[in-house]
Amino acid sequence: MDDDPVFKALADATRRHLLDRLFERDGRTLTELESELEMTRFGVMKHLHVLEDAGLVVTRREGRTKLHYLNPVPIRLIHDRWIDKYAEHRVAALADLKSELEESA
Amino acid sequence: MSTMIEQTVQVYAVFIRATPEQVWDAITKPEFTSKYFYGSHVDSTLEPGTPFRSWTGDRSQQLIEGEVVEADPPRLLVHTWQALYDPETAVETPSRVRWELEPAGEGVTKLTVVHDGLEGAPKTAASVAGGWSYVLSGLKTLLETGEPLSA
Q1: At the topology level of CATH, where does A1-71 sit?
Q2: Nearest CA in chain B to A52
Q3: What is the pTM for the complete model shown?
Q4: Is B151 within a domain?
Q5: Which residues are within 8 A (CB) of B112 and not within 5 positions of it... i.e. 6 or more apart?
Q6: Which of A4, A9, A67, B75 could form a disulfide with A27 if both were Cys (CB 3.0 to 4.6 A apart)?
Q7: Nearest chain B alpha carbon to A74
């Protein structure tokens, strides 16, 4: 619901790395993810939990295996709430500058 | 997005400050979908075995062709999905979209969208990969503020 867990989850290089691995190939098991990181299984699990609590990773069961999926929606929400807002101002400011310069020319 | 391998199973989830009934209506009624789903108007009686379609506002173009597989309001909706908006995706094998709605505390619903069966539809898989986040963000904004996302 809240942006805080998302920003906190993203403020860690290992967790961003995990998201990148899932972006490349989604729906992976803990064992697969662990094999690509120089880290104990417990460490990977801990990071996956933080990502899951933030909604950035969603797990689905397929038979006896638990698969991890990247959920990009919280990042999209941050984009729509924060990035768009400031990027728009920046574009508007540049547009104003352009018309001012052209008028004075 | 170009470096991404097309995912044959895609999972999206979002928490929305609304009841499952409100989320259900927003998914299944054209007056809502037109405000967050690329202007599309959903068109379905939600009876299993009947069409699940969506159109542009003036009905000049059909955007999605599908069939209702399962409907259990306000908890579960499963339908097939063939994207007609692009000639390259229109010829691909139909895939499947599953909407799961779960109450998640007082007045909050967790909405999960699973788009799978994309093995025979790589162009569709690539096309929807960015689209679902935009759609679900717009759906959340619409239900929580009453206003669509500004373009």
Answers
A1: Arc Repressor Mutant, subunit A (1.10.10)
A2: B13
A3: 0.87
A4: no
A5: A58, B11, B12, B13, B99, B100, B102
A6: A67
A7: B14
Instruction: Look up the domain containing B62 and give its range.
Output: 10-145
Which residue of B11, B140, B141 is in closest CB contact with A60?
A: B11
B140 contacts chain A (CB < 8 A): yes
Amino acid residing at B117 = G
Q: Which of B5, B9, B12 sits opposite A73 (nearest CB)?
A: B12
Number of domains forming the structure of chain B: 1
Is B4 in Cβ contact with A58 (below 8 Å)? no
Q: Which residues of A touch B5 (CB under 8 A)?
A: 24-25
- Say which CATH number the domain at B37 has: 3.30.530.20
> Residue B4 falls within a domain, yes or no?
no
- Write the residue in B5, B11, B149 that is nearest to A58 by C-beta: B11
Residue A105 has pLDDT above 90, yes or no: no
Amino acid at A69: Y
pLDDT by residue for chain B (151 residues), tens only, comes to 444 556 899 999 999 999 999 999 999 999 999 999 999 999 999 999 999 999 999 999 999 999 999 999 999 999 999 999 999 999 999 999 999 999 999 999 999 999 999 999 999 999 999 899 999 999 999 999 988 876 5
B41, B34 contact by CB (below 8 A): yes
